[in-house]
Amino acid sequence: MATITQTYNLDIVPNAVPLVVDAHQSDASQRQISFVLYSSNGELTIPSGATAYFEGLKPDNNVFSVAATLSGTTVTVSLMEQITALAGDIPCQIKVVAGGAPIIAANFILRVQQDVTVNADTSETVIPGLVQQAQEYAQQAQQAAENIDETWFTNGVSSTQIAGYSTTAKTTQGAINELDGDVRTLTRAVTPVGAGGQTAGTNVTLNRANVYNVGLMTFCNGALTVGSALSTGNVLASGFPLADVDVDLGLIGSNTAVRVRLISGQLIAQQSIVTGAYYFNFAYVAQG
């Protein structure tokens, strides 16, 4: 299959509503994405010798960081299997490093569409079969081990035969390990992952939130559903790491953004907020 190439203009200045890049679970090694970096606040210059990385947080809360190709202000990345293994919205960033320190971090959302052949119902039915197959392999390995006894050494059993049984046992153990990994993967696929953070009050539902640390930087993103209008000073959500930082909430499906503030672990409205679904994405230096 030919490689699919997509090109996007990516602003290094944070936006309330980030760029969304579409992908698919079956895109491993078949899709390349080029980002033309620019600054809406002025001219962008990247020093020679700089390097670029493609980083993100997958739905299973595992972070990936892979090297990207940097040419001028264009960064090109290839989607690998580990990146598109799980469907859903993945908060990502293109990070440019010069002199051993990050100089640019441009955020976007990688929206991985689900492969229709990978779903919870199928996984649940496959798991028992994999477990049974693993048990059968284990029984074969045990029988092979029991066939090696002291009579072999007195009845002229060749070293070639013994080596053959040893190889069979090792191959069987490898198959068991592989099946165990498959079972664990499928189990994760059918086990709901709880959202981080806590809701505050009855007007707001926190339906997705991830908080993770990279070095001294703490990143937080999620979605808030506001059920009724809120006024200045209302607490939207709580349970975040302690920090004081302003956050823009983007009203999904529009260009509207409202300002809230994270104070002592609470998101507090800085202006009146209408009902709707809002997306937020911010980063700050973690407090010691």
Q: Could you characterize what this model shows?
A:
Helix 1 runs antiparallel to helix 3. This protein has helices spanning 120-146, 151-154, 159-190; strands at residues 4-11, 19-24, 31-38, 51-57, 63-71, 74-78, 88-98, 101-113, 198-199, 204-214, 217-226, 235-238, 245-251, 257-263, 266-269, 276-285. Mean pLDDT is 76; it is low at 186-202. Strand 5 and strand 6 form a beta hairpin. The relative contact order is 0.12. The chain contains 3 helices and 16 strands. The chain has 3 domains: 4-113, Immunoglobulin-like, CATH 2.60.40; 120-190; 198-285, Immunoglobulin-like (Sandwich). The longest helix has 32 residues, at 159-190. Helices cover 22% and strands 42% of the residues. It has 288 residues and is α+β, with helices and mostly antiparallel strands. It has an 8-stranded mixed beta sheet with strand order 1-3-6-5-4-7-8-2, with no helix packed on it. It has an 8-stranded antiparallel beta sheet with strand order 9-12-15-14-13-16-11-10, with no helix packed on it.
